[in-house]
Amino acid sequence: MSTDYRLLVKNIKQLVCVCNNGEKFLLREDMKKLAVYENASLVIGKDGLIKAVGPADTIHTQFLNATFETVIDASGHCVLPGLVDPHTHPVWVGERVHEFAMKLAGATYMEIHQTGGGIHFTVEHTRNASEEELYASFKNRLHRMLKAGTTLVECKTGYGLNLETEVKMLKVIERAHRELDIGISSTYCGAHAVPKGKTAEEAADEIIAYHLPKLKEMMLNGEVHIDNIDVFYEKGVFEQKPTKEILKAGKNCGLQINFHGDEFYPMNSAELGTELGALAISHLEEITDEGIAAMAAAKCCGVLLPTTAYILRLKHPRARDMLDAGMIIALGSDFNPNAYCFSMAIVMHMACVNMKMTMNEALAAATINAAFSLGKSDMHGSLEVGKQGDLIILSSPRWEHLIYQYGCHHELIKYVITKGKVVYENEGITGY
User: Fold this and answer.
1) What pLDDT score does 361 carry?
2) pTM, whole model, 2 decimals?
3) How far apart are CA 38 and CA 33, in angstroms?
4) Is the pLDDT of residue 102 over 90?
5) Given CA atoms 272, 278, 284, 288 in this order, what sign does their dihedral have?
6) Would you say 427 and 396 are in contact if contact means Cβ atoms under 8 Å apart?
7) Maximum alpha-carbon separation in the chain
């Protein structure tokens, strides 16, 4: 056994592993009792993987002669898995703060969209931006997410709608994946809106005939890595036929299906997704009972976005009905120019208050289940031996403070660690 390790976190008051039996996701009953240890320690190797988790005395004895690059004494502190944000739109220029005022005055999302605002406003600015401009703003957003405890984030394109700009966005995501400390799952979302001057059918034909073959070529050449394909499946945007064609074509290119559905209108997204073998479907504010049953049976993950329902004054997704039916539930921030939220701690709080989830359910949904929705729960989402050493250390002795203290994550998160390396240390904490 090696005697040289990257990190020892010792004397942890409360170590929240979430899982301890290799679970890929947790359902309602499993969420009631998360894997939590009192007075524990954790070891991460030089390969960035967790080597040991257990009682502090046991770890001390087991690694008595070991050396560590970094040792953190977490006495009185709490350790959790790094948070996972499975739904974001972070690559763009062209903020829409002016539209927030319009929404407060009563304008709906689709009314703004149909008059050339919303996505189209951001598309125009993103098309005109240089790759360096995009990367600079994207890098800043990822850093803010990391400081808020997110160590793995899904990042979508979708503010290009033409091949040139979509490729530019994917290159920006790829650069961040290679250069930054945060984990990234990349999503092609060229069908985020119907480009001006085209029908949905024409846009779908272009995506299938030109976009996807080019992206497949770039993936084979190692220029970009793309994990998922997404479509905004919505009435008046991409309806069933073009959505189905795009998702099938993406799946044939080796991409996981992970799409927007049932946000404003009931579109039978669950039935379409389960037919196509979707890994996850996001939003689901308007899902039917039949859709819930179909997703539960297919183990298709529902990614719920409480920030979006809040900012747009929509009815909230039926989290309790979904959990009771045996659905896999994840939580995401939906960070974008319309829902400007970097913090999964705030997302969890909103899920508890507005969607009636328990704190245990919210934490599982923002860690192991969020990782499952991206096909990454084998290495992310819990603190178990063999998994990637991504974690956060709180200044509080109980993990629930991360959800309870609404909007105060910046005073709670002492360290953010990825692959056993401290990537953020908050030296300004005054207490929990």
Assistant:
1) 98
2) 0.97
3) 14
4) no
5) positive
6) no
7) 69
